[in-house]
């Protein structure tokens, strides 16, 4: 007789004198097995001390124990940190995470999703690429494969989303700059086809409206969500007749680009131009000067996304609640001193 710790379906089959497939059907509660055979199998299960792990079985029934993590930009440290949070949970659960970078390319994303579906993945966690069409995930939903969106959502989609409170974070950041005495503000980076952009820009504009910054003193510069994009945004902003003195950036990558462009001009973030990022990646604290940023608990969001996915697989559902994570503003040197106590209004 096998010991309790090592008992397997094969042990049960030998004890009951039936096939492994018959044992599997009994474990799954199938009505295809004759009552007397089922009774014999259940007695054998008790005799060998087999413990049925229903959660693991449900994962196996999802074709595989592989979960696809499809990320729009792994060169952005934020998404790398997000992926690490997800991976930590999956490894503990004995699940194999497969990470793919779509590089903001919907065609590449389609290829990756098709390949993962052909491999029979148990579920997908996706941060959709820019330009993703609304119908991209319908076929996967129809196939009953659970999907969770992280950070980004698609308009009119019912797929659950794990994301920070983008609107609230932008309000906190813009309020901080205005209360430090800035009256000409900019919003740098991102594009209007992203829901997350609309949320962050919306928070920025709400704070400006509430605290009396007229539309004529708000500059919105769309751009790539990268260092290169941030550099281009700053050049555009400083070329206008009345340039802003501070900017809220779409993310930290854009903020780092802005700070690089300032330095190339002999200017310094904080001292000459206030810069606030969004995401608070690990690099923000160690940058020079250290970057003020909206902290979103990146790894925590990744862990939450992974836990939601495991629960969906084990419950055999494609539905889950959205989760909007709390945010906070971490103030560092890049947003500069309080200008209210200073004389003049340097551009």
How would you characterize this protein structure?
The structure is a single chain. This protein is of the alpha/beta class. It contains 13 helices and 12 strands. The chain has helices at residues 9-16, 20-27, 35-48, 54-61, 77-92, 106-118, 138-142, 166-179, 195-210, 227-238, 252-264, 282-286, 298-315; strands at 66-71, 96-101, 123-126, 147-150, 161-164, 185-188, 218-221, 246-249, 274-279, 292-295, 323-325, 328-330. The strands form 2 sheets. It has a 6-stranded parallel beta sheet, sandwiched between helices. It has a 6-stranded mixed beta sheet with strand order 7-6-8-9-10-12, sandwiched between helices. Strand 6, helix 9 (195-210) and strand 7 form a beta-alpha-beta unit. The longest helix has 18 residues, at 298-315.
Query: How far is the N terminus from the C terminus?
Result: 83 Å
Strand content: 5-15%
SS-based class: alpha/beta
Low-confidence stretches: 1-5, 343-347
Q: What share of residues is helical?
A: 40-55%
Summarize model confidence as the mean pLDDT: 89
The oligomerization state is: single chain
Q: Which sheet architecture does the biggest sheet show?
A: 6 strands, parallel
- Count every beta strand, where a strand is a DSSP E run of 2 or more residues: 12
| Tally of alpha and pi helices | 13
Order of helices and strands: HHHHEHEHEHEEHEHEHEHEHEHEE
Question: What does the secondary structure layout of this molecule look like, with pairings?
Answer:
Blueprint: H1 9-16, H2 20-27, H3 35-48, H4 54-61, E1 66-71, H5 77-92, E2 96-101, H6 106-118, E3 123-126, H7 138-142, E4 147-150, E5 161-164, H8 166-179, E6 185-188, H9 195-210, E7 218-221, H10 227-238, E8 246-249, H11 252-264, E9 274-279, H12 282-286, E10 292-295, H13 298-315, E11 323-325, E12 328-330
Parallel strand pairs: 1-2, 1-3, 3-4, 4-5, 5-11, 6-7, 6-8, 8-9, 9-10
Antiparallel strand pairs: 10-12
Helix pairs in contact: 1-2, 1-3, 4-13, 5-13, 8-9, 10-11
């Amino acid at each position: 007789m096998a010991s309790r710790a090592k008992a397997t379906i094969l042990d049960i089959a030998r004890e009951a004198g039936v096939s492994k497939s018959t044992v599997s059907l009994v474990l799954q509660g199938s009505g295809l097995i004759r009552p007397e055979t089922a009774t014999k199998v259940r007695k054998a299960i008790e005799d060998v001390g087999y413990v049925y792990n229903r959660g693991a079985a449900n994962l196996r029934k999802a074709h595989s124990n592989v979960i696809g993590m499809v990320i729009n930009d792994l060169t952005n440290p934020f998404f790398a940190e997000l992926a690490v949070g997800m991976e930590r949970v999956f490894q503990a659960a004995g699940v194999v995470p497969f990470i793919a970078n779509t590089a903001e390319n919907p065609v590449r994303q389609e290829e990756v999703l098709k390949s993962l579906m052909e491999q029979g993945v148990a579920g997908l966690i996706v941060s959709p690429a820019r330009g993703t069409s609304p119908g991209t995930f319908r076929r996967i939903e129809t196939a009953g494969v659970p999907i969770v969106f992280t950070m980004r959502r698609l308009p009119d989609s019912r797929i659950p989303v794990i994301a920070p409170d983008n609107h609230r974070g932008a309000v906190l950041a813009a309020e901080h700059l205005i209360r430090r005495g800035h009256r000409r503000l900019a919003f740098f980076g991102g594009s209007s086809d992203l829901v997350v952009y609309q949320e962050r820009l919306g928070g920025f504009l709400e704070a400006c409206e509430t605290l009396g910054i007229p539309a004529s003193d708000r500059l919105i510069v769309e751009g790539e969500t990268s260092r290169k994009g941030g550099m281009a945004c700053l050049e555009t902003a400083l070329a206008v007749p009345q340039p802003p003195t501070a900017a809220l950036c779409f993310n930290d990558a854009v903020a780092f680009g802005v700070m690089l462009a300032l330095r190339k001009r002999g200017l310094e973030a904080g001292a000459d131009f206030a810069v606030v990022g969004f995401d608070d990646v690990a690099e923000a604290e160690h940058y020079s000067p250290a970057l003020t940023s909206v902290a979103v608990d990146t790894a925590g969001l990744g862990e939450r996304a992974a836990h939601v996915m495991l629960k969906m697989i084990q419950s055999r559902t494609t539905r889950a609640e959205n989760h909007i994570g709390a945010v906070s503003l971490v103030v560092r040197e890049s947003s500069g001193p309080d200008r209210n106590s200073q004389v003049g209004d340097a551009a």
